[in-house]
Prior knowledge:
The radius of gyration is 27 Å and the shape is elongated. The chain has helices at about 1-25, 35-50, 55-75, 80-115, 120-125, 140-200. The longest helix has about 60 residues, at about 140-200. Residues about 120-135 have low confidence and may be disordered. It has 6 helices and no strands.
Amino acid sequence: MGPTATSFFLGILFSLFPYDYPILWTTPSPTHLNATASAFSAYSGHLSLLYASPPLIPRLLHIVVAIGLLGFFLKLYRPSESNLLFDGASLGLYVVGIIVYVTNIASGLKAVAEGEAAPLEELQARGTEAEGELVDVSTEDGLRVLAASNTILALVMVGVLVLQAGQWYAERKEGQEVERWRREAGEKRKGVGAGGAGKKKI
């Protein structure tokens, strides 16, 4: 269940990548100024649409999160050494992903969608705030933080899948070694039995 939930989240993050890429890795320039502004506008509109989605959508998302947690906890019930190493590390990364989602993505989505982040031009017009006062975050900076958080979360989820793939490979190799050992032991027993039978005939 854990790898399935992880793959589900990676699919969601991949769908956001066309919005994240121009914001994170496109350098603003006079020739690309309109394109950059359009990217911010499109991302802001998309996030507002996500935030305004029916309550069923985030509930389903949180159910999948819970299913992933439950899957990793079930795999750690009476764990083998392989489970303890790979599934324990996978659970740790999964929890890190949940923390990134709660602290950065969910709160940032709410701030951008409800207009709590001020436009950059408005902040520049206010001038520098007095020391010790709270300074607002611009909408553009908020979108950059969201895009970076999506990238971090994607890397964490890929790490979970790599650990699960490593566990599968290790268990597969271990099974092959056990099967080879059993086959060799069986051949030795047959050889010993055949030798004993030959001595009795003599």
